Amino acid sequence: MGLTLAEKVWRDHLVSSGQNDDPDLLYIDLHLIHEVTSPQAFEGLRLAKRPVRRPDLTLATEDHNVPTQNIELPIADPISRAQVEALRENCAEFGVPLYSLGDEEQGIVHVVGPQLGLTQPGMTVVCGDSHTSTHGAFGALAFGIGTSEVEHVLATQTLSLKPFKTMAVTVDGELPAGVTAKDVILAVIAKIGTGGGQGHVIEYRGAAIESLSMEGRMTICNMSIEAGARAGMIAPDATTFDYIEGRPHAPAGEEWDEAVEYWRGLGTDQDAEFDTEIVLDGSALTPYVTWGTNPGQGLPLAASVPDPGQIVDDHEKVAAERALQYMDLQPGTALRDIDVDVVFVGSCTNGRIEDLREVAELLRGRTVADGLHMYVVPGSVRVGLQAEEEGLVEVFQRAGADWRNAGCSMCLAMNPDKLRPGQRAASTSNRNFEGRQGPGGRTHLVSPQVAAATAVSGKLASPADLA
Amino acid sequence: MEKFTVHNGTGAPLRRSNVDTDQIIPAEYLKRITRSGFGDGLFSAWREDPEFVLNKEHHTEASILIAGPDFGTGSSREHAVWALQDYGFEVVISSRFADIFRGNAGKSGLLPALVEAEVVEKLWELVEDDPTAEIEIDLIELKIRAGDLEAEFVVDGHVRHRMLQGLDDIGISLGQAEEIDSFEKNRPVFKPTTV
Asked: Which of A125, A352, B28, B157 is most buried, judged by most C-beta within 10 A?
């Protein structure tokens, strides 16, 4: 029997195979770190007097805590500042390269890796952040780890793991206009639930997936964790190779040819079998939004807030009741009638240049609704510079949006960008958990296009709703 | 890591599904650079409600959290495990754990005991009926014993071994230094470096 993409990458990184019930030891090609989940790991190394085994396979950036305004000033929040300073000291002490606030390469860790060409097919990539699954868009096996594992990788450049199960999510057909990668993944999560991918690596396949750009593929793989999966992957193809070629850390010359030859062999074999298979018709999809407090609580924008009384599963019913109470929504309300206070465009899910282009396209010649605050936060400094070069920033500002500096920002509200209690946001980020974007804040997850249309209309809307 | 063999304690019933790690410990608390002291942030939003289970006087001493399915979803933050431990929990029982949470718990010595959904229901009823009921978690026999109830639980075999012995995972892997060296020598030259 043949192997899946995930199984091939696993096979090619086996330092040793576990006997009996022991895990395998897997080599890690790239370890990305940031300020939040690394300080206790470095402290562990210091206590055990262990060095970082491969600082040259490790890269740090500051993203979760950093302010998106006045970045030339010291970070105002003393606790955030101390955490960022701890990262700087740790990187200096252990020799780990770091892109600090103010550097042209700084940004969200999952935007920076691919843009530097560090994320390549067939690699193992880890980071103390669940959205590491983003990098799977390149055919890498990429997954989030906890701080104990961060320390483990720093010390050994390996992880001890048991093989993941495999799941194929096939999205056939052609996506209709106005339906984006974000809508696809929200529909997938609504279908399989927040625990549906548990224990699995998802491989996304099918015509609708193949037609996506690398940025769209990253959006899909990014939210694999929201379906409970360890990782998401997409087989590398010409789109992948074109994206990587010429980037700062991409192979060149003969090494490029050798790499591409290897990458071409990584795709899932014809006769390989997945543990689980799911199929969606991409041509039937419409823009998706979430109505509840977990990413599986999503529906087409044309639908209405569901009635928990109609939900059969007891846990789901109770969860829906709690969610509607928290979200302050009534069953039967059309999703398009929901008023929004804040629109957030950004994050490792949708903070890349193509996302900003889509938003700018819809904002051009229009203005943000009265009383609505729209944040546009680039995923990295480079994305921000590109947006300026292309004139997108001017479009955002003319429309009345609040253009910021790069970082995770309001996706998780660790910096000053937060919803106030009771505020309702349409957000291009990845999590609608209670209080995620600020204590008492309410989040609807949406695509960049829906975010832009919502900013203009003041209610949840799709581009088709704009006159 | 401390050895874990048999634990006796009381249980707190958390009748909620899909408890994500943002609820267990909100991002605001993640700015600390130590491993200790996260207990004060545990379920901080929910603890503002006087009716929340951990605010009930008879559950304040509980060391076993009995939770609904899909416990620990979302963010990879190991702080969620540290917060539960710092608060005083040594065991979390659920019928389904999110993968990263379960892995983090095992690494830090918080036992993630996976049981059938009906066992969770029975334990909820038991501790709601008598909050002082003693629950025994036996990692040697993989058994939960409480009153008339005796149920099996599942934990990864390697995690069980490490917890029973109190072993450090990094030490185990460094024992394979030669294998790591030899793997490294054979890596393709086209693989990137960050420098």
From this structure: A352
Q: Which two tokens stand for residue A193?
A: 């639930």
pLDDT value of residue B75: 95
Query: Has the ipTM of the complex gone over 0.95?
Result: no
- Percentage with pLDDT > 90 across chain B: 93
CB B62 within 8 Å of CB B84: no
pLDDT at res. A82: 95
Chain B residues near residue A79 by CB distance under 8 angstroms: 31-32
Q: How large is the angle between the packed helices A39-48 and A78-94, nearest 10 degrees? A: 40
- Dump pLDDT digits (tens) for A262-297: 999 999 999 999 999 999 999 999 999 999 999 999
CA A375/CA A396 separation, integer angstroms: 9
Rounded CA-CA distance A194/B114 in Å is 18
**Would you call B18 and A294 a contact, using CB atoms and an 8 Å cutoff?**
yes
Minimal C-alpha gap between B152 and chain A (Å): 19
What is the predicted pLDDT for the residue at B57? 87
Residue B73: strand, helix, or coil: strand
At A331-372, the pLDDT tens digits run 999 999 999 999 999 999 999 999 999 999 999 999 999 999
Asked if residue A376 lies in contact with residue A394, where contact means CB atoms within 8 angstroms, the answer is no
Q: Which residues of B touch A89 (CB under 8 A)?
A: none
Residue A228: per-residue pLDDT: 97
- Bridge-based pairing of strands A14-16 and A24-27 is antiparallel
Residue A387: alpha-carbon gap to chain centroid: 20
| A295 touches A194 (CB < 8 A) | yes
Q: How far apart are CA B193 and CA A55, in angstroms?
A: 9
The three-state secondary structure class of B182 is helix
Partner residue opposite B69 with nearest CB, options A79, A158, A195: A195
DSSP string across A218-235: HHHHHGGGGGT-SEEE--
Q: What is the pLDDT of residue A291?
A: 98
Q: Is A346 helix (H, G, I), strand (E, B) or coil?
A: coil
Q: Which helix (H) or strand (E) holds A187?
A: helix A181-192
Angle at A208 between CA A204 and CA A209, to 5 degrees: 35
Distance set, CA A290 to CA A122, A258, A287, A373, B73 (Å) = 33, 44, 11, 20, 17
Whether A59 has its CB under 8 Å from any CB of chain B: the answer is: yes
Nearest to B76, CA basis, from B25, B2, B18: B25
Strand residues in A312-369 grouped as ranges (E): 342-345
Rg of chain B's alpha carbons, rounded to an integer? 19
Q: How far is B190 from chain A (nearest CA, A)?
A: 5
Distance from CA of A53 to the nearest CA of B (A): 11
pLDDT single digits (tens) A112-144: 999 999 999 999 999 999 999 999 999 999 999
Q: Which of A130, A155, A434 sits opposite B170 (nearest CB)?
A: A155
Q: What is the number of alpha carbons within 13 Å of residue B100 lying toward its C-beta?
A: 37
What is the C-alpha to C-alpha distance for residues B76 and A143, in angstroms, rounded to an integer? Answer: 10
Using the beta-carbon criterion (under 8 Å), do A156 and B190 form an inter-chain contact?
no
- Counting as low any pLDDT under 70, the low residues of chain A are none
User: What sign has the CA pseudo-torsion A153, A156, A162, A163?
Assistant: positive
Give the separation between CA B45 and CA B52, rounded to whole angstroms.
Answer: 10
Q: Which of residues 115-134 of B touch A (CB under 8 A)?
A: none
Residues 343-402 on A with a CB inside 8 Å of B are none
Q: Does A152 touch chain B (CB under 8 A)?
A: yes
Q: Can you tell me whether residue A87 is helix, strand or coil? A: helix
